[in-house]
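Re: duplicated header lines in exported structure tokens

Our pipeline writes sequence and tokens for each protein into one text file. With two proteins the header for the second block appears twice in some exports. Here is an export where it did not happen, for reference. First protein block:
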Amino acid sequence: MNADLTKITENFLNEMKNNEGVIGVWSFGSAARDMSDEYSDADIVFLINGSKFKETEKKLEAVILGICDDILICYEEEFNGESIINNGYLIEKDNNIFQLDIFLLNNDRKDDFICRIHYTDIFERDILFDPMGYVKELCGNCPHGSLWNSNVSKLFTTYLYHFYMSAKYLARKDHFKLNNVMRKLFETHSSLLLSLYDSIKWGGEGNKLNFIPAEKQGHLKKYFCCEDFTVDKANLLKEIEYFQSDIEETVQSIGTKNYTDTLDGVKKFWLKTTAKI
């Protein structure tokens, strides 16, 4: 996080501490993982006294305006409700734009699933404010993340089914349907790789993929549809080779059946269907 945003965050935190509804605060996101850089935004979770939850939510915008020149955008998550408020703000300060992701967590509903996500694997080092020990108590009873776990057989059938579909969209030169199929292939191949290489128990797919081998990360980057169908075809041919290698490595590690014959048959049909591309 850059120095200007750090200062803004400190000012915001100091103002929020004066709100009687705030009973605890901790870092979230990249800052809590020691992974923040100059491009990182500020992610802060405020534990709110249940009786003051609505009141604190109403005051939030005024507090933010007090530490910046203007609020340009407030992005409200769809899961916002009685348990948690998660708003993303783009704020302007001294002719620069900064991102603040603010979470208000209702202490009376802290056991709700959506709340528990936001204190999974919390450590005492993440605490920013805890005068009555509520956050420390969460640290001692927090849920824990898990490594990626997928049904490899389902991934295999999903991938080949959609790879087969990509042939007709290439042959038709249907850019938009091909794009949708390639996104599905990317998601499926990503899940397969995470089944092999996931090593972190926090974050979603986007976080976890940064920790798979760099070479494998490069393979996934060819799943994005472009306007040149010959390039798309060449990329998909490369991708199914990578997928075949990865599925063979996966099934070897888990002792599952051999998938080679099915994959080779679909690939042969695919090449025939796309021969004119």
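Second protein block, exported in the same file:
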Amino acid sequence: MPVIEMRGIKREYRMETKSSKSKKNKAADVVIVRALRGVDFFAEEGEFISVMGPSGSGKSTMMNILGCLDKPSGGTYSLDGIETSSSDSDTFAYIRNIKIGFVFQSFNLLARTTALENVELPLFYRRDKTMDNVKRKEAAIKALKEVGLEGRMDHFPSQLSGGQQQRVAIARAMVNDPAFILADEPTGNLDTGMTLEIMGLFQQLNKLGKTIIMVTHEPELAVYTKRIITLRDGMLVSDKTVEDRRNAQDDLAQWNKEHVLLADSA
């Protein structure tokens, strides 16, 4: 069974024009915006997929539906065997906390809490009575070790580099062992070196079996994933396997080497 199974997903928005505020002819002044027009999308466990498309293509709308932040106007969305389209708000909250690990461009870490405490946070909302303070801490430590930050657990976000902050965010996304990680432009605030570092981490996690969906507008990042789907005008127009997939760790090593040579020649 696919981790993600979308069939005929539509999302429509009703927008009123300024003239529709008058009492006359109001129905004629309502504009229907069709952000998604019957998208079929499937993802198996262990995939690493890029979602791409120009501005207005519907990729942000699709991300919101994938992340159970919004419901479709039509079609069905099954996530890890749970049909989400008709779920109530409590079920939606449960799905977001347990089934999806979110990674955002802006990290969204709490400034006054340590890396360890930031990663522990999702576990407080699990409503799992068997998860006491000791188990929460153990799970958070394990997640931080997986992203290579065992030596930075007691550091605050202000004491970490941008790449390290994003690693904390990725650990936080993984701590509940979600069905998949949903990353929205995860390297948008990072320089080239840190970008390659994070893409290398995603590739490592994917090798360990983590399912990752990454929304991006950058083709140079998509080549690190295994599959690219492209949206245009609310429709899925392309679904391709990455034939010449790049290795982010190799590219990072080459980038570092070139920058050492540039520094030596300066």
